[in-house]
Amino acid sequence: MERESLEMDVVFVGAGPANLSGALHLARLVKEHNEAVAAGKREGKPLGELEIGVIEKGAAVGAHILSGAVMDPRALGELIPDFIEQGAPVESPVKEDEFLYLTKTRAIRSPITPPPLKNHGYYIVSLNKLVAWLGEKCEEAGVNIFPEFPGAEMLYDERDAVVGVRTGEKGINKEGKRKANFEPGVDLLAKVTVLGEGPRGSLTKSLSQRLNLNDGREPQVYSLGVKELWELPDDRYPAGRVTHTLGYPSDTHTYGGGWIYGMQNRILNLGYVTGLDYGDPLLDPHAEFQRFKQHPAIAKILEGGKLLRYGAKTIAAGGFHAMPQLYADGVLLVGDCAGFLNSQRLKGIHTAIKSGMLAAETIFEALLAGDFSARQLGRYETLVRESWIMPELRKVRNFHAGFRRGRWLGIANAGLQFITGGRSWGLFDRASSEPGHVALKKLSAYGYKGDALEQRYDGLRYDGKLTFNKLTDVYHAAVGHDEDQPAHLHVLDTNICAERCAEEYGNPCQRFCPAAVYEMVEDPGAAGKRRLQINFSNCVHCKTCDIMDPYQIINWVTPEGGGGPDYKNM
Ligand code: SF4
Q: Same domain for 378 and 462?
């Protein structure tokens, strides 16, 4: 097969906030350097015109990023000090914070907002619009952005140094044969490749396994956020109001909580986070979110409103202890795929932007030195350690681990950490030493008979007004994948699904996937037996299945470029 190779200087994989900030910062550093050298103000050689590329699997920058987040502006202010004047698309400054504890029928408003959830001075943003804006800034600075180009494979030399990335092929049918529109993937060769794929990136996963980047670190733990965007009929929930909730509907052994953010034009962003280290095999994060909306306090806010968009996304919640080695020969990791999220504050945009900027500074120094080895690129970890990122993450290093012992000990631990600056004297810091899927228990441990969801969600109905089933929600994610392509969910041994998993866990993929991708159906070839059907075209790219499968036999890989949800302008 004839395969095109493109020589670039730096390739960023994934057009999220970390990589776009990194690409923009690098382009500016190089320009400033060239101008200073040309003007005789700086010694050394000019670096010339660099080829900096950002590849993105979605159809456009932001297509796979759904709205609503509260952003600490610290890093964006460092990248673009006058970001407001330059038209950064912020929805509103945060004007009001509230924290609710939900019982089944009541909402108890906390007299004080816990300090980590105070958002004064921050902004509610549509992350989708923010990254589209950063993408424009990158293009103005000369960065090449390639949408519809998923990173499919890392490229290594004979010493295992990363030398670039291979993009995904186009035009392969579901039998794996070439169609008339077949195009092979392109080898993008680069001095440095920066992975900013978001949580559980598929390239990051394979790279980390190959180069043992997680050795000596805690396993990463994740949470899944299931969210919807609503349009309200009036101003009952104003732009700039932020609500966080704890309690109902999650049980006290499961990490979970809700959020509501008021955006412009009567748009509401709300969602529910479930820790992907839960025990109950019948738990369904999408159903938890529907239950959350049924709470009287939440239902009242949504009454008469209209569902606009749906999405789901994992977040890497392991923090400081679970961060992998951030560099290797020819490669750096930034943003959520490197675990930069502050899970106590539920904020990661600022740390993602900062990590991208520090990666850019590292690459700039490496370009000057002409050295792209791990020894040189290891400077990135030093910069991260010396920046404000590490003190912030160190202070909350045991936050998520506390919730492994249940809600009340988790809250007590969070309070203790706030006072002690993160110390928990060994009480909790080993609690996350296993990946989250290990916590999943068998049906028998809960006394369940089979996998009927009613055993946990008795009475949950989807009325199409307040509550929606997964297929209706997926419709509102505007998901599109060419159906005539191989499934991008690789289940390594489907025999396990039909027998062992069915018996032990009741095929939990049918529940933890928030997009009804996995379905056990009658097997026409074996009377009375069921087989796994993968409705891959529903996939909203949240990566939960890759994380939560109890046998770890699901591999999420990138589908054909451009496939997936479409959240443009949301
Ligand atoms: Fe998420 Fe996996 Fe379902 Fe896709 S198939 S929506 S990645 S859980």
A: no
